[in-house]
User: Fold this.
Amino acid sequence: MSQAHQGGDGRRRVVIVGGGFGGLACARALAGADVDVTLIDKRNHHLFQPLLYQVATAALSPADIAVPLRGVLAKAKNVRVLLGEVCGIDPDRRQVSLTDGTTVPYEQLVLATGSAYNYFAHPEWAQQAPAPKSIADARHIRASLLKAFEDAERADDAAHREALLTFVVVGGGPTGVEMAGTIAELARHTLKGNFRNIDPACAKIILVEAGPRILSAFPEELSTYAVDALRRMGVDVRLGCAVEGLDDHGLDTKAGRINARTIIWGAGIKAAQGAAWLGGTHDRNGRIPVADNMAVVGHERIFAIGDVALLEQDGAALPALAQVAQQQGTHLGRELRVLAIPRPFRYRSRGDTAVIGRHSAVYSLGKYQLKGRFAWFLWGLAHVYLLIGFDRRALVMFQWIWRYLTFERGARLID
Amino acid sequence: MSQAHQGGDGRRRVVIVGGGFGGLACARALAGADVDVTLIDKRNHHLFQPLLYQVATAALSPADIAVPLRGVLAKAKNVRVLLGEVCGIDPDRRQVSLTDGTTVPYEQLVLATGSAYNYFAHPEWAQQAPAPKSIADARHIRASLLKAFEDAERADDAAHREALLTFVVVGGGPTGVEMAGTIAELARHTLKGNFRNIDPACAKIILVEAGPRILSAFPEELSTYAVDALRRMGVDVRLGCAVEGLDDHGLDTKAGRINARTIIWGAGIKAAQGAAWLGGTHDRNGRIPVADNMAVVGHERIFAIGDVALLEQDGAALPALAQVAQQQGTHLGRELRVLAIPRPFRYRSRGDTAVIGRHSAVYSLGKYQLKGRFAWFLWGLAHVYLLIGFDRRALVMFQWIWRYLTFERGARLID
Assistant:
């Protein structure tokens, strides 16, 4: 072990890139160990992404679902948080380069850089169809949604007004379903009586999915249930409807043109940077193949976890879920407390869940399925529980109960 | 009354420009009257400005102190909210022009455009020394404050680190005092243990005031108390210290140079646009002189209320306070319910208050004074009460109690 790769008192240096579910879990598992840990993130906060769509739809404030990384790790005296953006890795010199020109040496490196939305061959679509990934995205979507109603209120032309009141969500995964359901609730209930020239309840909410069914990761029965539930809420669900083009006035699909001013993207993700820094192999979604102990193939000192890692278990790649990242982070952190080769990791699913709207959600774990009111209640309970900190739990729970009773949304800000 | 200045059913049209304390109070007082009311604001929300400094210092989220104007006025069916920016008034044709080229006719017009911070002869200083006036400003200040600590954590050079950890607040009015006190609490308590290379408690917080005392609108005894309280909290209060120059690295004052990366402005306000649109007289702060019934001198159909109006009572101009604007708005709204010349308004002060820090505030009403723990408690109670909506009251109260118990601040976001 060379001098540079040790801490001030000769301790082993572990560097973690990314403070999402995987990276933060890894840092927490390393707290108090005889290791110098550096957690690098370009943002100062850990974001509870599963609820980001609620920020995008004015139900919650960004700070309700974000915790400062320094605050969470304040008591882990061996963990240092570094606000910076990684731009490269030098495996030979064992150091990470930041965009400000500095380098951070490591003895062991954990890549937990997460994922971004996938616009496939059309990155330029991100302009017209933002996806809820960061707080800035969510705020942007929130402003677009609310601004569309404002503009419709003032529009003289009927066709223009209709396009303004048409909201298209692309992608029938959990995020797309949640977004479409919530926009329907916003239009039908929250904004009721707020306008004088338009009736917000007349808004068209269209969910387009290229495949034959929505929530394709769930059993078919739950997909059917979700379609029915969405349609009852007034969402126009269009299956087998791939997007072929996007512009400022709407989108072209296989099934024809849709004029819409607001388009929200939720169609598939791709791994964030990571593979490019290593110059190694990766799958078509940019994921880095790792061994069963999360070591990057060909790099014994480098590990990848979460959405950026491609780990096969029982013949299938583990999905890009918060619980996978978190379990991997915790496992790897515990293993790295001592200097040894980490033991293999095994993912134990706690089940998949998606919420559709009021009283309506789905949950699936192996053969076990749940849908409707009880699944919806459990979804809420689980998500409140998974938030970090008593204050955030209390704030989110209060706002949910308030919204449940009044249909009001506390964060209707255009800014 | 010409056709254009009436509503669809021939009703009188009242247009209110600005949805702050004055404009919103006026619109609410007109709810249900036999009048067509249009409330124009460039933002979709009413902002509870007295607590904006708490957003700037990461204690509250923007949505906690902002309510959507449409939501507040949903039940006032005769009130229409228009999201737009006014750029001119034509008193002869009785219409308001918006930046998007449309015009809004009025029979009676209420100007409630508020105020902006006054950089006196140096508008360019706004760049280096932002003032907490809008939500965007508050977010920008919050990010600057938190980023300064982040950069200090990484700084190698001692002088540079010291400049990064020096925070200067310009202006010893209530906003300046509140900002300085809160930054001190942030540095000494909230961020404790969050860093590895710096001790945030070593941050220097300097409050510079050009005049001989801070809180000059309060009795001298309370000013002295405030200085003592700030100094006990670790704030360096410098009186008679006028700012002469500002740059990216600090500021020059009459008493010498201060190197500081973060400078926050809170020194005096000037009226927002309004006088310019009318082309009439105004005082040196841009306020429009009004008669005792708030009618603009020389314009019997136009009224001005709040910070944009200059109304003398008992020989002195009424101060730029939320309670003045609110009382004027309510009075004028009630008077305008019927078509007649509004009766004179008389301001009844409920007292002035400013908070310095934990357990420390001042309150003054005529000969009656209050300071310390009890004033602080009353200040909190009054501000929670004045928020609009049960949900916001509950959210703010919960976050204050949580912060009181833990010193934690829920909105430490750099975004």
Notes: The longest helix of chain B spans residues 135-154. The two ends of chain B are 51 Å apart (CA to CA). Chain B has two domains: 3-117+269-336, 125-267.
